Structure formats: C-alpha cells, structure tokens
UniProtKB/TrEMBL annotation:
GO molecular function: fatty-acyl-CoA binding; flavin adenine dinucleotide binding; glutaryl-CoA dehydrogenase activity
The name this protein goes by in its record: Glutaryl-CoA dehydrogenase, mitochondrial
InterPro entries: Acyl-CoA_Oxase/DH_mid-dom (IPR006091), Acyl-CoA_Oxase/DH_mid-dom_sf (IPR046373), AcylCo_DH-like_C (IPR036250), AcylCo_DH/oxidase_C (IPR009075), AcylCoA_DH/ox_N (IPR013786), AcylCoA_DH/ox_N_sf (IPR037069), AcylCoA_DH/oxidase_NM_dom_sf (IPR009100), Glutaryl-CoA_DH_mitochondrial (IPR052033)
Compartment(s) of residence: Mitochondrion matrix
Necessary cofactors: FAD
Domain Acyl-CoA dehydrogenase/oxidase N-terminal: 52-162
Cellular component per GO, a single term: mitochondrial matrix
GO terms of biological process kind: fatty acid beta-oxidation using acyl-CoA dehydrogenase; fatty-acyl-CoA biosynthetic process
Pfam families on file: Acyl-CoA_dh_1, Acyl-CoA_dh_M, Acyl-CoA_dh_N
Keywords assigned: FAD, Flavoprotein, Mitochondrion, Oxidoreductase, Transit peptide
Residues in Acyl-CoA dehydrogenase/oxidase C-terminal domain copies: 281-416
Species of provenance: Orbilia oligospora
Membrane-spanning ranges: none
C-alpha cells in the first residue's frame, strides 16, 4: 500500500486557507462589539492576563493599602519608624510567605504575589514592599526551601501570622556584591556536642533589630552554609543587632546590623542539604522578582501624581503644564516603560510557576525595572519644580527609595554583568 504524499505547496496552501478562515471567524465574532478604548492606567490590558484569584488578591491588597496602610506611610517615613503591628496585619491578610503552600501560608501563584503592586496597590511599595521580600521571600523562603521538616513546622506557621519576625543575613561590611568572600564563620563547639559557634558581622539587614528568627550565612570549613539563629536562645553578649539610623531612603523600613560573637546554634538549625552560594542566591532570586514588581508599582504612583500635578498646575498664560510637549513626553515615556516592565513581570512569573525560569531572567527584569523606574521618577520629579522637595508631594520619597531598590539584592551593574557574561559564554561555547 502506498501512502499519498502531499506536495509542499499544497500543504502550505491548506495552512493558508486555515489561517484565513480563522481570521474571518475572529472578525465575525468581534463584529458589532464596541471598539476597545485606551486606558493609560492599563495600557496593554494586562488585567486580561490575570486569573480570577489573582484579581481577587489584588483587590484585597488595595483595600488594605487604602484603609489601613497608606495613612501611616508619611508619618513613618518622616520619623524613620516602623510599626511592628503592620506585620501582624499582613499575616492576617495572608500576605506573608504568600507563595508557600502549607504551614499556614496562602500558597498563591507567583503572579498573584506580584499583582499586589499594581495600581492603586502600588502604594504598598512605599511602606512595606521590602518587608514582603525580607520576611517572605528571604527568611521564610530559606526555611521552606532548605530547612528540615521540623524547622518548617516550628517556625513557618508563626511567621506567616506575623507573630515571629524574620531577617536574612548575607551582606557584610566588607563584602556586598561579593558574598563568596564573606568573613562570617561557623565552627564546631569544642565543649558541647551537636553545637556550632557563629562569629562575624552582617550589615544592611532589613528587620535585624526586631527579628526573632535570623537566617545567617557563614563559612563552615570554607563552605558557605545556612543557619537559623533564634534570638531567644542566644546567651547575653553573643548577639547584637543595632539599628542603622539617619538613612536617606527607605526610612519607613527598619534596617540594622548583626554582630555575632560565638553565637551557639544547634546542629538541627543548620540547613542540611545546601552548600555554597546556591542557597542564598536562590532566596535572593525570589526577592528580586518581587522588587521588579514593586519598582513598577512605585513608578506608576509617580506617573499618577505627576499627571495630576501637571493638569492642575498652571503656568504661562494660565495653561496647565500638561499642555506642553516636554511634559507630555516625560509622561508618555514613563507610561510606556511601566507597561513593558509589568508585562515582563507577568511573563517571568508564569515561567516561574511552570518551572521554566532561568536566573538570568530575574537579573534582566530586576535590572531593567529598577533602572527605568529610577530614571523616570527623576524625570517626573522635574515636573514638580521646587515643590518636589516637599514630602507631601511624595515624589522625592519615591526617588530616594528607588535608588535603594536599584542597589539592594544585587546592584544594577552586577545584574548587567550577569546578563552579558551569560550571553557571551553561550556564544563562545557555540563558536568552538
């Protein structure tokens, strides 16, 4: 029996007819519908890419932000003070450790975690976004991903409620972008079986002055290992966590150092199955993903405030600033990059959920979104003129905070290096 072989041209013709038919059917389905209108707040209809659960989570975040969080933002920033009750409120709302399944956590999608920053939920970033990262993505994520089952059951449910506060200690006074050179050490306690002693210092650690649970990375016999320090177990004089005061950015965040002088840690509190920088970098990638969302949320708040100001502020024969093309260009450029940045976040989130994420993707969106949000915030700040100096207009605070966001969890130049070296390495390998 002979099989009939279709000529390539016939095959192409058949595919072309199918495509034409599909397009015609689509045209008929949409015929009679009202033309879609452009909404600058959602320029490319990102919400159509979201699941119902993700939209519901965004609505919950909006309600919490507007009613309970935003009124405290400006006072907290002025006073450089963080209200610990915020964490309990977030725990009640299911925001802490949100992507973790089980252990009292919500178990939502990675995209759902990010959409909390969409407008008008963007205001969450002003006060609490890096609280999400430091507590949920870093300390809770480290316990969930690398801790024993006993550690997960002991700490995660209480941390998810906001009753226990966590921090993540990697950066050191002499080593920020080069964690492989860390000086913090762990050694076996010669006098007590099953105990380690940790010594060294960490700095720029969010929540360290108030943390009950401290995740610390230290070198044990030359290998980077992760340890959980429970503050209540530390003998007097072994652990100090002074606050870093007089910051010019993220003033509503409590930041400090960790000084350890032979802090005793039971062997059960060391993460057993992860060595080297793979552990901390995996945790940081989760935080960087959240930062990519948060910076876009902050940028959208800058856009909204600059737009409103340019419409109400009248100069030169009573014309609103928004009438002038230089002002329009600043706004158009910012809206475009904010839209593209959010779409990139959704795409990376979906890949993350499907297990198709490469670390370089995180570097790309963290670098790009932090860089663009800071650049546009500075341009939009110019629209306010001298009024930008007054904190009641909020734009100055955003600029200061976005500078910090560009720096922490991997400075922008470091992520640039990661992206280009990966590209060159792939090209050079394929050329051999």
């Amino acid at each position: 029996m002979f099989r009939t072989v279709m000529h390539p041209r016939s095959h192409l013709a058949k595919r072309l007819r199918s495509s034409i038919l599909r397009i015609e059917n689509q045209r008929l389905r949409t015929q009679g519908r009202a033309a879609s209108t452009f909404d600058y707040k959602d320029s490319l209809q990102l919400r159509n890419l979201l699941e119902d659960e993700e939209i519901a989570i965004a609505s919950t975040a909006e309600e919490y932000s507007q009613q309970r969080l935003l009124p405290r933002v400006l006072a907290a920033y002025r006073d450089e003070n963080f209200d610990k009750s915020i964490l309990r409120e977030m725990g009640e709302a299911g925001f802490l450790g949100a992507t973790i399944t089980g252990y009292g956590c919500a178990g939502v999608s990675d995209v759902a975690m990010g959409v909390r920053y969409l407008p008008p939920r963007r205001k969450l970033f002003q006060y609490a976004a890096n609280r999400y990262d430091a507590k949920s993505s870093l300390s809770m994520g480290a316990i969930h991903d690398f801790g024993t089952e006993e550690l997960k059951e002991q700490f995660l449910p209480t941390m998810a409620k906001g009753a226990l506060i966590g921090c993540f200690g990697l950066t050191e006074p002499n080593h920020g972008s080069d964690p492989g050179s860390m000086e913090t050490t762990a050694r076996i306690d010669p006098d007590r079986e099953g105990m380690y002693l940790l010594s060294g210092s960490k700095t720029w650690i969010t929540n360290s002055p108030i943390a009950d649970v401290l995740i610390v990375w230290a070198k044990l016999d030359g290998q980077v290992r992760g340890f959980l320090i429970e503050r209540a177990r530390c003998p007097p004089g072994t652990l100090e966590t002074p606050a870093i005061k007089n910051k010019t950015g993220l003033r509503a965040s409590i930041t400090g150092m960790i000084h350890m002088d032979n802090v005793p840690v039971p062997k059960e509190f060391m993460f057993p199955d992860v060595e080297g920088l793979r552990g901390p970098f995996a945790c940081l990638n989760n935080a960087r993903y959240g930062i990519a969302w948060g910076t876009m949320g902050a940028l959208e708040d800058c856009i909204e405030r600059a737009r409103d100001y340019s419409l109400s502020r009248k100069q030169f024969k009573g014309n609103p600033l928004a009438k002038y093309q230089l002002i329009q260009k600043k706004l158009a450029d910012a809206v475009t990059d904010a839209t593209f940045g959010l779409l990139a976040c959704v795409q990376v989130g979906r890949l993350k959920e499907q297990g198709l994420l490469a670390p370089e993707m995180i570097s790309m969106i963290k670098r790009q979104n932090c860089d663009r949000s800071l650049a546009h915030a500075r341009h939009l700040q110019e629209i306010f003129g001298g009024n930008a100096v007054a904190d009641e207009y909020h734009i100055g605070r955003h600029v200061a905070n976005l500078f910090v966001a560009q720096t922490y969890e991997g400075q922008s130049d470091i992520h640039s290096r990661e992206c280009i070296l990966t590209s060159l390495h792939t090209h050079l390998k394929s050329s051999v």
